Amino acid sequence: MSGEVQGVGESTGGAGARGADEATHQIGDRSAPEAKGGRSAQLKHTGLRPGWTTGACATAATTAAYTALLTGEFPDPVTITLPKGQTPAFALAAEELTDAYAMAGIVKDAGDDPDVTHGALVRVTVRRLPVGAGVVFRAGPGVGTITRPGLPLPVGEPAVNPVPRRMMRDHVTEVAARHGGSGDVEITVSVDHGEEIARSTWNPRLGILGGLSILGTTGIVVPYSCSAWIDSIRRGVDVARAAGRTHVAGCTGSTSEKAVVAEYGLPEDALLDMGDFAGAVLKYVRRHPVDRLTVCGGFAKLSKLAAGHLDLHSARSQVDKGFLAELARRGGADEALAAEVAESNTGLAALQLCTAAGVPLGDLVATAARDEALAVLRGAPVAVDVICIDRAGTVVGRSAVAAGRGPAT
Question: What is the pTM of this model?
Answer without folding.
Answer: 0.60
